[in-house]
Amino acid sequence: LKSGKVTEAELERARSQQRQRNDPRRLGEILLESGAITPRELERQVRMQIEAVVFELMSWREGFFSFEEGSVAEMPAEATVRISTESLLMEGARRIDEWSRIADKVPHLGVIPVLAPVDDDHPSLLDLLPNEWEVLTAIDGGRDLRAISNALARSDFDIAKIVYGLVSTGVVELRFPDRVSKGAALPSDDARPFVEKAQQAL
To answer: Which of 3, 38, 63, 105 is the most buried (most CB within 10 A)?
Structure first.
């Protein structure tokens, strides 16, 4: 749905079929049978979903983890997509390296990109790639990077990377919501009511 491959109506029909007939199949299989998507598109979307989950997991800096040893035979056998673990981890490591570079100018996905004011020193012609133009046209001064990512059906990483390039070339500036500018400390007065509420709750 996010990438525009199925309509809301097609998805709702598949959901209602699941509910009304107690169909144990997954939504993708039902959409495939109805002709809404092709097997190749289903595999592509499932692969992208798996990659997005793994890449997000690899970006976590802390957490509570539990590891249990088990045999391969105990794993679910109905998996329809096979992905090389090595290539997945290599791509994840590459993205982590790039995120550390991007974070210098794009610290998080909650920042709001706005078009930079044009000055006399700035070149009047822009030489951008099609995906950069696509992101540039989605910048409206109100949506943050995550909202733009959803609107364009692109990964958060891709959007952040493109915006990093636009910020570096001076085409775009970033606004930081919540009244706190980049690098500014939160005034202690602002936090006091919340700390008191937390102490009372404890």
So the answer is: 105
